């Protein structure tokens, strides 16, 4: 019985290797190169592409390759092909000169588990929604006048950081500056987003912050599955199921915070009262004359 099982396992493995080799042969040898004007690329191996050239420090690996193949090169990581820009001049060409050509974002391995699929500004395709959200960020959400309204928040958080460091010094304890600066950043962002601190407090903002970290970590692990090509649909590690569960928990918590902000908006804002990002997004959500009608999923996805 064990021998028969081993035979079928080997047969399945042989089928997988054969399928990958055929796929590589079709893409590499049968595709007409005359149709493409691609950047220079190092010699690739079958199936794994250039993975053998990538060391533990990704930036150093790309820097080493760039010294030989130039500031713009093509890299193949398993079944995924990408283009790497390695200097400021090329990056400016991509992000400024040819901004519209690079506006649309690809979907990564984690996108099929994303419960707000189609509502994510970061990976949205270029179109009306993308243009509206970009304009909204530039003119209201992240504009200089909006950020200036929160200078006191940043000052308060910096004071708390200094007090925490001084407390460690007084007590003769080691101070983890990485954790302290992370707390400073997270608390500032949370207060600008939903008017409440997250670190060191047992509230929705604290749970949301931890869930966002979990979602980003799981999404990163799933995106590595892109190198497997067609086999990425199989959630071998179970990270896809974990990501869906974390996103549903995040959805419930953010929905509760949104309801609190809606109740506050119904009572009305006092003259000169500061609005956080969630207040502004809800204002556009409730505006019947808005250029693009935002959904609550759009808001939740943007905050994530």
UniProtKB/TrEMBL annotation:
Which Pfam families does the UniProt record give? p450 (PF00067)
Question: Which Gene Ontology CC terms are recorded?
Answer: membrane
User: Where does it primarily localize?
Assistant: membrane
Q: Which cofactor does it need?
A: heme
Oxidoreductase listed as a keyword: yes
- Transmembrane regions listed in the UniProt entry: 6-26
**Compartment list:** Membrane
For this protein, the record's InterPro entries field holds: Cyt_P450, Cyt_P450_E_grp-I, Cyt_P450_sf
What GO molecular function annotations does the UniProt record carry, in alphabetical order? heme binding; iron ion binding; monooxygenase activity; oxidoreductase activity, acting on paired donors, with incorporation or reduction of molecular oxygen
User: What is the similarity comment for this entry?
Assistant: Belongs to the cytochrome P450 family.
Q: What is this protein called?
A: CYTOCHROME P450 FAMILY 712 SUBFAMILY A POLYPEPTIDE 1
